[in-house]
């Protein structure tokens, strides 16, 4: 059978200033190591034989109908503006409209140098490719908007990082790869015409009801407020919330040094390069506001007089914290089994989180145990939990089915960092058993799967991963 991808490309039809057209760079010996059949079905893709798919997803052959290109963007990295980034190691093959009617990008990541590579080699190594595969698919199964993974291929080449490592290419699927940085680059150049064109494109593609730049800004704010709240509710730390990794569609994008927290602490950071703790767990809501402000600054540059947009844009941005908090509280209420809203709920949630931090509770297991009635075992000082639980039980009176609500809001399984590291070590040694097992188990994160209790367990002290590295 021949691989067939029903491309329907729109970004490639935008004028030349938005991208550079070029194919992926061929690799030595492509080998397909993962292919997401469910996702392929949704996208209307007909799979081919594995040799052919290795050629396509390794970047050696451009599939029919693709119009490969690297996208231009810029962005603030750790708060400092970088005027030109762009796809330095990714190639957008094109778009498909799935059986669900949704348009999505299909992109190869790790596919070789482009005009935007700067000093980089354009490649990715196997570890981050498999991490992104597992974590993004887990995120999807958790019900959180995210890019997805269609395929992973080893390249048969060595990539040089701290030492020599096996190279790989990820095939990433996204609602689009538009980001704050896509707007910033044209704003910085004072190119109003391109900004207007990009705004129209983003509105038509993602928020057809929105009107003009301010409508787009509000829509991105609302989508991102929901997204950040969803991350917080599962203990996810993105790790590099730079404006080039902040999507217009409101999907989680760019799984670099990301991780799910084990022990709860609001200041948790994983990224080895985030020395200022800018992207710590608890900072994510305010960083999102900062990123939205950068989008606002870029969007108003398309007005004849940008000053005319300042007041309205400021109002839209300033409304974000309240929106994030409302979404956050709705999610944490559900984590406690609560479906209604009452005065005092915020205090109930924050009191529990405070106790969890003091007692070094595992974030995921403690919330899951609430539904099972075993949460007190998670606390080094159970008496403190008992006192809190009295108020909680009183609050639950009249709630129809708190257990069921909690079981839908509190996953049993998350991609734990130490398991991801084990999985990568296995794959580097040629053993993909844990990779496949993680994908299977994490596809049903809210189900009890007692036969996989080892994947639910918090890491032992010697298993704890202290940092994830950006050497992607
Ligand atoms: P990221 O940290 O993945 O969001 O990437 C930030 C920027 O660096 C983007 O413009 C990437 O395309 C670029 N980049 C990251 N790694 C490489 C690499 N190995 N080769 C070329 N460009 C890269
Ligand atoms: Mg990025």
From TrEMBL:
Signal peptide (residue range):
none
Q: Per its UniProt record, what InterPro entries does this chain match? A: SelO
Active-site residues annotated for this sequence: 244 (proton acceptor)
**A Pfam family matched by this chain, by name?**
SelO
One GO molecular-function annotation for this sequence? manganese ion binding
Q: Which reaction does it catalyse?
A: L-histidyl-[protein] + UTP = N(tele)-(5'-uridylyl)-L-histidyl-[protein] + diphosphate; L-seryl-[protein] + ATP = 3-O-(5'-adenylyl)-L-seryl-[protein] + diphosphate; L-threonyl-[protein] + ATP = 3-O-(5'-adenylyl)-L-threonyl-[protein] + diphosphate; L-tyrosyl-[protein] + UTP = O-(5'-uridylyl)-L-tyrosyl-[protein] + diphosphate
* EC number assigned by the record: 2.7.7.-, 2.7.7.108
Role description: Nucleotidyltransferase involved in the post-translational modification of proteins. It can catalyze the addition of adenosine monophosphate (AMP) or uridine monophosphate (UMP) to a protein, resulting in modifications known as AMPylation and UMPylation.
NCBIfam families, per the entry: PRK00029.1
What name does the UniProt record give this protein?
Protein nucleotidyltransferase YdiU
Could you tell me which species this protein originates from?
A: Leisingera aquaemixtae
Gene that this sequence comes from: ydiU
